[in-house]
What we know:
The chain is α+β, with helices and mostly antiparallel strands and 610 residues long. It has helices at 25-89, 92-99, 103-106, 108-124, 206-220, 241-252, 291-342, 358-396, 400-415, 419-436, 446-463, 488-499, 532-543, 552-565, and strands at 3-11, 14-22, 131-136, 141-144, 166-170, 177-186, 198-205, 225-227, 234-235, 259-266, 269-277, 284-290, 443-445, 467-472, 481-483, 506-514, 518-525, 570-575, 581-588. The longest helix has 65 residues, at 25-89.
Amino acid sequence: MPRCKRYWIKKRNEKVIVIRYRISIFDKIIITIILLLIPVLFLYSYSNRIAGSVVEEQLRSSNLNELSFFLNRMDSNIENLSLFPVILSYDPHIRDFIGGTGEAAGNPLKAQSRMTEKLSLQSVSSSWTNDLTIAMPESKRVLSSNIYVNGMGEWMWDGPIRKTWSYEEDHSRGFPVGTFIRETSEPANAATALQADAVFQVRFPVETITDLLDIYRKDEQSDPFLYHPDYRPIRNSTPDLSIEEPIIRNVLHRSLTDAGQETIVINDQSYLVSYVKSRQLGWYLVDYVPVQRILSPITTARNWFYGSIAFLLMIGLIASFLLYRNVQIPIRTMIKGVKRMSRGDLSSRIDYKAKNEFDDLIRHYNEMAGRIQVLIEDVYTEKLRSREATLKQLQSQINPHFLYNSLFFVINSAMLEDRDAVVAMAENLAEYYRYTARVENQQVTLRDELDLVRHYLNIHHLRMQRLAFAITVPEDMMDEPVPRLLLQPLVENAIVHGIEPRVTGGTITITGEQNERRNRIVIADNGSGLSESELRRLTIQLNGPMTDELGCGTWNVHRRLQYLFGEGSGLSFRHAPGGGLEAVLTWNRTSSIAKPRLEEGDHDPTIDRG
């Protein structure tokens, strides 16, 4: 995770925090993976979109081209049928029969039989079902390849000659039967049958086109039909009217070009409608397919792409998780362990099983931390023993000035025959030196320490009447274990530096506070106190190495509390509310002292009273 360092900069007596973020190796790897995936995703998406557009356009164009190709084939067959009447009109036997010359004049029945045979042969020469017919208005005779029409005299003699393909429906069978018809005449400029010597007709049924549409539908999996605004559509054998009718209503009823495509939505599904106009019939060949069918190759490719991207992302996430689990977590755990050790917690160990190469590193780290703890504790123990020897030496010596002043007070009081003062001084002095000279037990209760301080303050009060004191400590705190000679050095400093310089004297108050976690003793005087800069310098010296300027006693009180009671314990100074200085001793509440406490008969460092 991102980490940051803080730098404090003094500017116009204000502190400005400058924060610089430091990205971890894990974050750098994740960012690298993301930066690698983003360009790939962007470029592939862009290329896929461009390629998809091109392919979609090609598929649409291909669909229209296939429809045009089918219509061209159909128009070619229809065009071949259109030539049949022309071929018949140029046949010499047919011309002789129409003119009544040649064989038709000598043997008309044989000539008529030859005519019918020629019509049948010409008709079957085409792959399409068709009927070829010759109508002769003058003799009112009709010859045809269709045996049901051949020899009959029924004809629309006064009707126009249909020189282009036209469509008609015969309802005589009870259902409409559609056919396409085209005629030529002899002479060619005749407008009606009565104006012509002969009319040549070719006809084919719509079933032929229906069969072709069925074949196209099977090959292309579509649903084509022929459309003309004046007639019913010519459909394949299995049309879907629920789709065809909306297409006719919404697309084909408008003015159309010779070829085109439109997209229409029917029943919440998009359809691509393609249409091409027949140059022979004048009808439109219409086909429609679901857009999804056209775009299915693109959709498949896009789905594969997104599936690949999802797979890559999943692989990236799995790789990130494995990297986080197997690298980042062990590193963070080791960093936490190192930080705990750097804060002085030498008993901290890394309790984590990485199940990889980090296990060896963590094991070696724990071994190293154990050795460091043993070495530091050995050094610290030797240091304590050295200070203990100094303590014994100091305790075995009597401060000559303090003793001299006390003895002279006894002498002067005896000369003045002040028996109570002599007794009081002697009792307090005896109790004080009996306590300080006893070195066999370095751990006492707070009650014992307060008794010593009370005797010490009584001695100074007898010598210096301008000194007053008050001790207020809850009874629940009295049995708390503390190191020996913890409070006396701070009381002595308060008297020497706070009360004695004042002509009017002063007051020392000792207050106890306790909560469920910690104990606190506040030793306050109403002396001159310290300036802000002096208090700041005192705090710095207290948390640094011991110096002659601070004094061994004050520094030792702070270090002993930290060592014996753990983190959060120690000595601090602050301004007293009414002036002067407060020394605050804080230590953790425990049933046994947090650090390995000194047992009876062992020794503990104390203070050089100065």
